[in-house]
Amino acid sequence: MSSRVLEIEAKQWQFESKADYVNALESGKVLSFSGLPFELSPDEKRLLSPRVLNEKSRNVSLNEKGELKGANVDPVVQAQLTELIGRFKGQALDLLNSIAPGYTPNLRVAPTSFRPLKVEDRKQSIRADDRRIHVDAFPSRPNYGERILRVFININPEGTPRVWRVGERFETVAERFLPRAKPYSAWQAKLLAQLRITKSVRSEYDHLMLQLHDLMKHDEAYQAKANDDLVEFAPGAVWVCYSDLVPHGVLSGQYMMEQTCHLQVKHQNNPEKSPLAILGRMRGEEHLEVVGGLTV
Ligand SMILES: [Fe+2]
């Protein structure tokens, strides 16, 4: 497998970590676990179908209040989906606690999603096409540098792997694309918020991350030759990464669950390894505070 992926054997979601997995994670590695138990009951196997989705949704998600969104199913199936996604949520949080116990009190837990669609069949705009290699950035939800930490599990019942492209270091990507980034405009950011296009005022950090995301996806030559590794996550595999730091694209696969957590940069073991700090350094020291409106 790729040198960008750290393969770990684990029999339980809760364990005492001897290795410095946090350093690997913060340095941009994908941690890939094999051997973690996650059994689907016969009833749950029947949930593996795109038919559980309502017309407008690509994912079923379970929010912080335990409410299920995106499904069009009867109450019995709704309860089964809630149980399945909720069980993964609990185990994903256990795993994060095993990898990085120091993060636990400061993690902000976002919704958990179940993605039943075949990646190859998705038709969407270049900007929304996650098959193209990119770093995660949200157009409508500025995060001011807060990290995006994600846990994934492939629950495909037919032996189909989930295939990712994993790209080069964030610094290398930023060196390539940052010179092409449009300058930040504070008045435009305010206008976007007034028009409710963004949920709050987009910071310079958010602007730059979105520029990287968009410039990467729209650069055909880069997409064709992004110095990336092809990585297959077999059914049962669980993988964890900072998706705002690790360039990635999802080439193929079907039936995956994903837990997103957020962490403020100051709660990292090494805040200097965050995109906020890296972009700040690249833009010059005095720029750091402006980038994201936060110091690290
Ligand atoms: Fe992504």
Describe the fold and architecture.
Strand 1, helix 1 and strand 2 form a beta-alpha-beta unit. Helices cover about 25% and strands about 20% of the residues. It has an eight-stranded mixed β-sheet. A three-stranded antiparallel β-sheet has the order 8-7-10, with no helix packed on it. The model has no long low-confidence stretch (mean pLDDT about 95). The protein is an alpha+beta fold and about 300 residues long. It has eight helices and eleven strands. The longest helix has 25 residues. It is globular, with a radius of gyration of 19 Å. Helix 4 packs across helix 8. It has a single domain, classed as Sandwich (Jelly Rolls). The structure holds fe (ii) ion. InterPro entries: Kdo_hydroxlase.
Q: What is the secondary structure topology, with strand pairs?
A:
Elements: E1 5-9, H1 21-26, E2 30-34, H2 42-45, E3 60-62, E4 68-69, H3 75-99, E5 108-115, E6 147-154, E7 162-166, H4 170-177, H5 186-194, H6 204-218, H7 220-224, E8 229-233, E9 238-242, E10 248-252, E11 256-263, H8 275-283
Helix pairs in contact: 4-8
Bound molecules: fe (ii) ion (FE2).
Give the strand content: 15-25%
Order of helices and strands: EHEHEEHEEEHHHHEEEEH
Oligomer category: single chain
What is the CA-based Rg, rounded?
19 Å
In terms of structural class, how would the helical and strand content be classed?
Answer: alpha+beta
The appropriate CATH architecture is: Sandwich
The first-level CATH class is given as Mainly Beta
- The percent range for helix content is 25-40%
Shape: globular
Count of DSSP helices? 8
Low-confidence stretches: none
Average pLDDT for all residues: 93
Biggest pleated-sheet summary: 8 strands, mixed
Q: Distance N terminus to C terminus?
A: 34 Å
Please report the total strand number as a whole number.
Answer: 11
The CATH topology name reads Jelly Rolls
Protein name: 3-deoxy-D-manno-oct-2-ulosonic acid (Kdo) hydroxylase
Pfam family, one: Kdo_hydroxy
